[in-house]
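Schema walk-through. Below, the input block comes first and the output block second. Nothing else is stored per chain. Lengths vary across the set, and this one has 340 residues.
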Amino acid sequence: MGYRVVVAGATGNVGREMLNILAERQFPVDELTVLASRRSLGTEVSFGDKTLKTKDLDTFDFTGWDIALFAVGSDATKKYAPIAAKSGCVVIDNSSLYRYDADVPLIVPEVNPDAIEGYAKKNIIANPNCSTAQMVVALKPLHDRATIKRVVVSTYQSVSGAGKEGADELWDQTKSIYNPTSEVPPKKFQKQIAFNVIPQIDVFMEDGTTKEEWKMMVETKKIIDPSIKVTATCVRVPVFVGHSEAINVEFEDFLDEDEARDILREAPGVMVIDKREDGGYVSPVECVGDYATFVSRIRQDSTIDNGLNFWCVSDNLRKGAALNAVQIAELLGNRMLQKG
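--- output ---
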């Protein structure tokens, strides 16, 4: 049994990656259509060995389609997702619009697959923030063993998390530094991103937290456990693809670093690369194009009773966005098939 699938926002970084992953994982597609805004209408995109032309999102009729993967941003999602959902098409949304809606499940399939049962309330499923997705994949198996009290995380997030404009700005600024006759002032980011780091992702909130940091806190609670305390500092770094996170965890119960390493080795979606030698860890360059969330540098935190530190890296365009959305579609399909 195959599905009629829509990819909305097919010309963007995440939309193209969704198409790649649908093909790579051989998702059971009977029919596929790709949608874009009118300014991108007719743009060609690849799906396996096929080339597809985008259709107009504004006039598309979702009736009779099974699953729609949305990668169009919150404003467009607010307009078009309810239309698709009311037409009977299940929307899997990559924007932040529905993540905090109590009637919309927020899913990371390796972590909270049973939450998908709630999708029918609005016919919409939310995909979490990219920095949250990779972190909870690593946290959940440890939480099941020793119960997490508190997480302190510092992120090192790549420019592709800000879309094509972010990647272009890093590229153009880097070139301009070696060619002083051309200057590229910040547009997408608040300050120069080339050869720099920026401790701001998204807007500031009243308490001094940025929206990205707030998202990590709220989404971790919704996905894993509302009692977990999370504090985050999110930083944009001059890396094209791949988010990195330095994570400190305080548990209710003692968890030895060796046991933690064994638990993570067996955890779905996690790859442990942890050798205590030069280069015995994974950097963002090495994770690009991979499905896994990589964990390295697992070690006891001697400053608290039940603490661990570790390093977490993942391809933000994959696990942080497109892969997770396709995994949700796979989970949805399996549950639909089981019920059918």
